[in-house]
Amino acid sequence: QIADPETCDRMYESLVRIHTNYYKNKYPRLKDTSFTGVTVEDCKMILATDILKQMEDMKKGTWKKLREKFYAKKPEEDSK
């Protein structure tokens, strides 16, 4: 048995509105961007693993890049 059927009905109706995207359809957005202005496609591109590897390479310092370029051994061997 439900103690308060009115509260239960209100909660159920609220969940139905969430499930059916009621407010998304009622208040459509003019542009599909975030508050920073980044689109969904830009976010997906940033999160791709290839882009992350490129960003990690860009974060490396000049000396580290030069050392990796001129050393014949791999960086994993440096830590041994």
TrEMBL record:
<dbReference type="Pfam" id="PF20180">
    <property type="entry name" value="UQCC2_CBP6"/>
</dbReference>
<dbReference type="InterPro" id="IPR037698">
    <property type="entry name" value="UQCC2"/>
</dbReference>
<protein>
    <recommendedName>
        <fullName>Mitochondrial nucleoid factor 1</fullName>
    </recommendedName>
</protein>
<keyword id="KW-1135">Mitochondrion nucleoid</keyword>
<dbReference type="GO" id="GO:0034551">
    <property type="term" value="P:mitochondrial respiratory chain complex III assembly"/>
</dbReference>
<keyword id="KW-0809">Transit peptide</keyword>
<dbReference type="GO" id="GO:0042645">
    <property type="term" value="C:mitochondrial nucleoid"/>
</dbReference>
<keyword id="KW-0496">Mitochondrion</keyword>
